[in-house]
Amino acid sequence: MNHLLILVGVLLIFSSCGTGSKGQKVIDRAIEEHGGAVYETVRLSFDFREIHYEILKTPERYEYIREFDDSLGRVKDILNNEGFRRLIDGREVQVTDERAQAFSNSVNSVAYFAFLPYGLNDMAAQKEWVRETELEGNRYDLIYVNFVEEGGGDDFDDEYLYWINKETGRMDYLAYTFHTEGGGIRFRKAVNQRVIDGVLIQDYENYMPAGAEKRPPLDEVEHLYISGGLELLSEIQLKNVKVERL
Predict the structure, then answer these.
(1) pLDDT in the model for residue 221
(2) What is the pTM of this model?
(3) 194-219 exposure pattern, b = at least 16 Cβ within 10 A, e = fewer
(4) Domains along the sequence of the chain with CATH
């Protein structure tokens, strides 16, 4: 039987027993430890893989900007409440709906991971406490998250696991499935944790399954990491980070 189906079944049992509230409490504490109320009205800027990002969030508005140079000139993508726009050397250019959606998804993905765990209290997020576990000498609450289709974005059917440190409340590891470009699974370990103006910023080691088995069940990823069944794919580093409280 598919291990993920077993996991989902177990989660349904947990939900009927009220563990949804436990998962919510764990996530609420994690959000507080990572920045809390600062997240609600803030502009976060950083450089990631030669691209500059500015992520603005308030209770009424959001605006995600990325800027980079290519053969056409200085590109500036803007995604906000009004939609998506692309500028090249300061002048707006028209893009197809398909490309605009692809660019929007790319910008939104970076913003989502940069603000974790804050986004886990979005209305579309469904959280369940799975179990306690130990990883690399620390105790964790393991939280499963998925999203309802309405309000969950184009990738609403992706699934996530978060390891929340029972002592510090920090999100030290995460894993997720994805379905774009053939799909797969990733496991991330937080490194270089530092607090900048009240917000916990962290980089990640980004792992994928090694060998021929590229898409194991999500609930096996912890065992694969411990047993050496994951290989380092990339390092996710946010540089020149600035936090501006609004």
Answers:
(1) 95
(2) 0.86
(3) eeeeebbbbbbbebbbeeeeeebebb
(4) 3-245 (2.50.20)
